[in-house]
MBL fold metallo-hydrolase
Amino acid sequence: MLNVKQGDAFLFETNKRESILIDTGGKLMQSGIKENHNIAKYHIIPTLKKHRLKTINYIIITHPHIDHMGELSYLITKYKINNIIINTRSFEKNKLKLLIKQCERNHVKLIDFKNIQRFKLGKANISLLDSTINHSEDLNEQSIITYIEYNKIKMLFTGDATINNEQLLLRKYKLPKINILKVGHHGSKTSTSDELLQKIRPTICLVSVGKKNHYHLPNQEIIAKLKRLGAQVFQSSEYGEVTIKLKSKLTINTEINQ
Ligand SMILES: [Zn+2]
Ligand SMILES: [Zn+2]
């Protein structure tokens, strides 16, 4: 879990330095303030470099909210990216056109998630699960859900998917027990239903949130519920960047010690 303040950015890496970045973080530009890309500059690119990743194999944009894709255009120009996966339908026409152009210019392959439901990256198996609700006006309900299996470790990244998506997900797919869960929608009450938790029983939960964010996230009831389940919960607002070694015994390193 990268430390991108209020937003999401999760980096998955194999032992051969193959990588997937799920969301890029990003913050709302206040009018009058010059565009800055401090999040990518100080919190994403240094981590990629530290891990000696010269290329990002895939960027998955769960849904086109600024806190999930705000740093994308900057990253496209600053880093070698092979593929970007999006839910095309969730994008406004103009935004999509711009992205297509930018991908062409920088030799990035842009892929709709419906065209790549399962793929391999080295020894990792990745499934892009579709529980999107197309007619929903809430972009969170267009979130791509990513399931990764690597070294027998099972990980689920749900973007900002809501309880409605979770219900669909449970109906459509047979989910296993999950070792690492990216908690939906920054720990908001709109996500993380009891039904989902009972099914996947996560052991490590990652919550990406900014300190003292004005959405008052995460919701404390959600955090309490996860802990009651016996899960270890890590908030980026408290621990900063959180790194988990994906070996049979999961070891967790945090930027800030508690
Ligand atoms: Zn979000
Ligand atoms: Zn969102």
